[in-house]
Amino acid sequence: MAKILVTGGAGYIGSHTCLLLLESGYDVVVLDNLSNASEAALRRVQEMTGKTLDLVVGDIRDTSAVRALFAQHSIDSVIHFAGSKAVGESVEQPMAYYDNNVVGTLRLCEVMAEVGCKRIVFSSSATVYGDPDVVPIPETAALRTSNPYGQTKLVIEQMLREIANADPEWRVSLLRYFNPIGAHPSGRIGENPNGIPNNLMPYVTQVAVGKRPHLSVYGNDYSTPDGTGVRDYIHVMDLAAGHIKAVEYLAQHSGADAFNLGTGVGCSVMDVVNTFERVNGVPIPYQIAPRRAGDVASYFADPTKATQLLGWQAKLNLEDMVRDSWAWQSANPNGY
Ligand code: NAD
Ligand code: UFG
């Protein structure tokens, strides 16, 4: 079976994808500098699957380390998760974000070109759509973004398209994730943010487990059905499955394509809170707070293209997501 290099494979989405790759019979090599992850995640992935993977602790920008990895392993395709992802931090430290995300991807692609491994699945983000003109958002929507993190995703998308235009041996999938939440249903692996979570679901689970007193709901005066922000939450296991489909697609198709990975269903902050309380039987105290700067009222995916071309569709719903997020947080109140 083909061997896949997973950069950032020790992280949240990467660890779930490694698990599914191993279960699907792929050989897996992870390159991760552990800047935002723990080796424990991959130990657990190996225990859960009864299979082994290779972990190379190193940085995508370290060209000699990446060269050595490709010399040691015959890699068929790369799934490229490694990068920095905090919007607020990117505003404070734009240079660090361009370096890690843009320069990191460029250095990785240089080695891939050198060794003739020219298939890459890239973690893009729905943030490339900014405040969209229409929802659900198709891949053909205008691309715009208001922060350095989003800008790095746009630059990388553009760079990968141009690389594929210049050399038809390159095959590129740009996966635009909507809002990944949830965890493996066993609760053994999950999202493990450092410090105070920025994102809704890890904040909710930390309130549920008693680490934070209450959730702040950022705005209830948006023009949405209940006034709170609407997003397309997608279960991380569905997202992981999308990566397997993208790898399979690249084995058959050339060129560069972008795909939305979302459910197509918009859920409000209060939908998430109410569903969490109902499914898990745990109260989530909350207070209405002012809108958060930079937030948009509502966005959700038109996932038709991924269904038609990749044969992928999200199968899990919000109840599954809140149940599995809680399975992870309640069993691992302090993370790994
Ligand atoms: P994560 O931080 O859990 O995973 C990223 C991994 O990359 C971490 O394990 C980190 O240690 C590693 N890493 C970072 N810089 C590296 C480098 N220079 N060299 C080697 N390893 C490095 O994040 P995640 O939520 O799993 O996100 C994965 C990807 O998906 C990121 O590119 C992110 O921008 C993108 N994405 C995430 C979301 C989300 O909400 N989680 C949404 C859209 C897109
Ligand atoms: N929210 C709260 N309280 C919180 C946290 C969030 O009310 O404590 C609300 C937000 O206002 C928003 C919704 O919950 O309405 C979702 O917020 P998140 O921070 O979980 O997610 P965002 O949609 O703001 O952003 C996420 C990632 C970005 C990525 C974007 C698109 O954090 O990196 O999805 O993929 F770019």
TrEMBL record:
One of its GO terms (biological process) is galactose metabolic process. Belongs to the NAD(P)-dependent epimerase/dehydratase family. Keywords: Carbohydrate metabolism, Isomerase, NAD. Its EC number is 5.1.3.2. Homodimer. One of its GO terms (molecular function) is UDP-glucose 4-epimerase activity. Its cofactor is NAD(+). It catalyses: UDP-alpha-D-glucose = UDP-alpha-D-galactose. It comes from Salinispirillum sp. LH 10-3-1. This is UDP-glucose 4-epimerase. It is an enzyme of class 5 (isomerase). Pathway: Carbohydrate metabolism; galactose metabolism. It comes from the Bacteria. InterPro entries: NAD(P)-bd_dom (IPR016040), NAD(P)-bd_dom_sf (IPR036291), UDP_G4E (IPR005886). Residues 5-324 form the NAD(P)-binding domain. Signal peptide: none annotated. One of its GO terms (cellular component) is cytosol. The gene is galE. Pfam families: GDP_Man_Dehyd.
